[in-house]
Design brief:
Helix content is 83%, strand content 0%. The protein is built from three helices and no strands. The longest helix is centred in the last third of the chain and has 32 residues.
Length: 63
């Protein structure tokens, strides 16, 4: 697996925050609901990316 510089991992957090807030903002007008939806979306995206990371690591280990 190609090594990734730790500085690239710093882009992950702002990207997830931006995606989650925009997605929540398009669904609701109340700030409290936007933040709740953004947190749920952020957890979903993080879990999805974690699963993809695990699959790639397993494939790398097998090949």
């Amino acid at each position: 697996m190609l090594p990734i510089s730790p500085s690239y991992l710093l882009y992950y957090l702002p990207l997830i925050i931006a995606i989650a807030l925009v997605f929540g903002g398009t669904r609701h007008e109340n700030t409290k609901l936007i933040v709740q939806h953004a947190l749920q979306t952020g957890r979903w995206i993080t879990g999805f990316m974690g699963i993809i990371f695990i699959v790639v690591c397993i494939l790398n280990w097998l090949l």
